[in-house]
Amino acid sequence: MKSSFVILIGLLIMNTLTYSQIPLSSFDKPDGTNSELMKRENIENKYKWDLTQMFKSDDEWEKEFQRLDGLTQKIKTFESKLGTSANILNEALEFTDKYWADVQLLMQYASMSKDIDLSNTKYQAMYSKALSLANNVLTAMSFMRPEILSIPEEKIKSFLKESIGLKTYEHKLNNILRMKSHTLTKNEEEILSLASPVDESFMSTYRLWANADIKYPVIKDENDNDFQLSPARYYQGMFSTNREFRERVYKNYFIPFVDFKNTLTSLYYGSIKSNIFQAKARKYNTTLGWSLDQVNVPVEVYKNLISSVNDNLSPVHRWCSIKKSILKIDKMHAYDTYVTLFPASKKKFNYDEAVELVLKALKPLGEDYQKNLKHAFDNRWVDVYETKGKRSGAYSTGAVKGSHPYVLLNWAGELDDVFTLAHEMGHNIHSLYSAETQPYPYADYPIFLAEVASITNEMLLLDYLIESSDSKEEKLTLIEKYLNNIQGTFYRQTRFAEFEMVIQEMVEKGEPLTPDVMAKIFGDMFQKYWGPDMITDEEEKHSWSRIHHFFYDYYVYSYATSFAASQLIADNIKRDGQIAIDKHLAFLKSGESDYPIPTLLKNEVDMTNPKPIVAVAKKMNELLDKMEQLLK
After folding, report:
1. Which among 420, 454, 502, 545 is least surrounded, fewest beta carbons within 10 Å?
2. Percent of residues in the chain assigned helix, strand, coil, to nearest 5
3. What is the DSSP letter of 195?
4. Residue 359 covered by a domain
5. Residue 157 and residue 434: Cα distance in Å, rounded?
6. pLDDT at position 474
């Protein structure tokens, strides 16, 4: 049960790998310095989540927890009865669905309350209680899959004809039957479900270390003021045009990761060993095959992505060479990859301006989409600014029954933050549409499709900004943004996916996993992807350890495949108008009512074909051509 449990938790706290920076325009000190983070109580309520929309108080949450905790045993009353009649099977599925939905709401409230201040032990305890309850429910439900598989297939088909309610579960039941050869006996499934807390502990331990326990140094900024490093401020430093400051930020930021390299390697090694246990227990040859089969994505899609990208690295090498030339430096370093090449045209954006930009840019998606966006912005679905102890980065929670989806940001006023907002609202509205359109069993969407809606929004925003630009400098800035998106979301995530596959294959073969081995493999891949104009610093070799998505088990590849799919979708919307919009909205409303590959075909995108992947490399070269023409 590890995959369903950990994937659920991952979706509840979904990230995008886009990290925000510190709020600049609203909360800087008058002298321009910002040595301390803003206090949460000093931020207007409209920029903070309203979690009372889930539970009016922590006491109400506790009462609901106690109620749900007492219902777990009722699941067992269905044991050994699922095959007796269509009505009993339907009743069991409906009860467990409703129960699980209520548990999800508990977890979401506790998780989000915890993420507002990770040093608050009260909400850490509530989250742990919710996870423990979720594990108990999964353990109690563990008999269901093997018992359903013990029912003759013809009998299940007759049940589907007898019960209108059971018809809702037809796709779910077919998916269970698809997994028959990898489903174990009732007792074995129960044992595997008991391992869920162990599996999740590697990710949760890493997250606590990275967000609550880690100690970053204080350094001097460009003006010789004290500058307290944090994940958000790391990116603020990487965007600085002062190269010495960038290098100082970069070198110091990675000190904790290098100091704890043995601990972090051990955590990841334990996570992989847990994956191997699950894969072997379920009769899979590899962890990759085990992970992708959970959502019925062929392994060939994953491997085709890596091989196709490796055959098309020249645009990234070209981009590195052009950046080096414009920056007038002898060699590129990792701390040179974020800084803008056109600082004169760099703008700052406050959050309210960004909201208006996103609304205008996403008008092509239609009136209903606009209505939902405005409702989210006006009703405190978004937590905007970085505060002390707040979880770093950005994510959308996904929708759970009884609650709308929420978005976490760490606003800094950069152009990247505007794109992060558009990205997260893509997740948000995708979750909303799926939950509103589909019955509960299919109200979520599979991981493989998780980034398509969000990246499509980024594409539309970029198109809007380029079209409304009236200067060469601004066009150059936006083209640079597009190039950075391709490098960061398509090539970088493929590099992570390749690293993850290679590392897990090594452990599967029994090869030792040490900090030095991890550093060498990650460093060599960084060099391969960026090419001969890049210097791979020692710190970069250890930067794998700040990518928390590695603990999600073969997740990052979906960013790259989603990027390729999104480019085609955005192009279709621009070219075909309402016809393409209707197809996209149908896709957004599909949830998990079908498997990922056919669901994406609703948008006329076939990810079993290498063409979408190769097309991104072609697009990058076209943008580089355009940039060089403008520079002339």
Report:
1. 502
2. 70, 5, 30
3. T
4. no
5. 27
6. 87
User: From CA 82, how far away is CA 151, in angstroms rounded?
Assistant: 8
- What is the C-alpha to C-alpha distance for residues 170 and 154, in angstroms, rounded to an integer? 13
Distances (CA, A) of 582 to 576, 589, 599, 612: 10, 11, 14, 21
Res. 301: pLDDT tops 90:
yes
Would you say 425 and 457 are in contact if contact means Cβ atoms under 8 Å apart? yes
Quick one: pLDDT at residue 8? 37
H or E stretch at 111: helix 86-116
Summarised one tens digit per residue, pLDDT across range 362-389 is: 999 989 999 999 999 999 999 999 998 9
Sign of the CA dihedral running 514, 531, 310, 426: positive
Q: Please, which residues have CB within 8 angstroms of residue 178's CB and are 6 or more apart in sequence? A: 296
The answer to the question of residue 147 being in a domain is yes
Tokens of 104: 């999800």
Global pTM? 0.77
Gap between the Cα atoms of 414 and 421, Å rounded: 11
Phi-psi map region of 78: left, alpha, beta (phi>0 left; psi -120 to 50 alpha): alpha
**pLDDT above 80 (res 214):** yes
- What is the identity of the amino acid at 179? M
pLDDT at 404 over 80: yes
* Two tokens, residue 573: 């919307």
Phi and psi torsions of 439, nearest 5°:
-65, 160
Angle at 132 between CA 128 and CA 134, to 5 degrees: 115
**Residue 18 pLDDT exceeds 60:** no
Determine contact, residues 417/18, Cβ cutoff 8 Å: no
Say how far apart CA 291 and CA 457 lie, in whole Å: 28
As a whole number of angstroms, the distance between CA 559 and CA 423 comes to 12
Q: Encoding tokens for residue 479?
A: 């083209």
Name the active-site residue from 64, 200, 424, 539. Answer: 424
Task: Summarize pLDDT for 479-493 with one digit per residue, the tens.
Answer: 998 999 999 999 999
Helix H or strand E encompassing 524: helix 515-530
Radius of gyration of the chain (CA): 24
Q: How many CA atoms lie within 13 A of 380 on its CB side?
A: 12
**Could you give the C-alpha distances from 145 to 9, 88, 106, 180, 606, in angstroms and in order?**
21, 15, 24, 9, 31
Q: Could you tell me which residues come within 8 angstroms of residue 567 by beta carbon, excluding any fewer than 6 positions away? A: 459, 612, 615, 616, 619
Q: Is residue 424 among the annotated active site residues?
A: yes
CATH number for the domain spanning 144: value is 1.20.140.70
Q: Any residues with CB less than 8 A from the CB of 177 and at least 6 apart, and which?
A: 149, 153, 156
**N residues, the chain:** 632
Assigned domain for 64 exists: yes
Write out the two tokens for 171.
Answer: 């796709």
Burial class (CB in 10 A: 0-12, 13-18, 19+), 26: middle
For residue 53, what is the DSSP state? G
What DSSP designation does 605 have?
-
* CA-closest candidate to residue 500, choices 547, 536, 461, 561: 547
pLDDT at 24 over 80: no
Neighbours of 228 (CB within 10 A): 15
573-606 burial string, b = 16+ CB within 10 Å, else e?
Answer: beeeeeebbebbbebbbbbbbbbbbebbebbebe
Residue 585: inside a domain? no
Give me the number of domains the chain comprises.
Answer: 1
| 627: nearest Cα among 453, 496, 466, 412 | 466
3-state DSSP call for residue 621?
helix
pLDDT of residue 141: 94
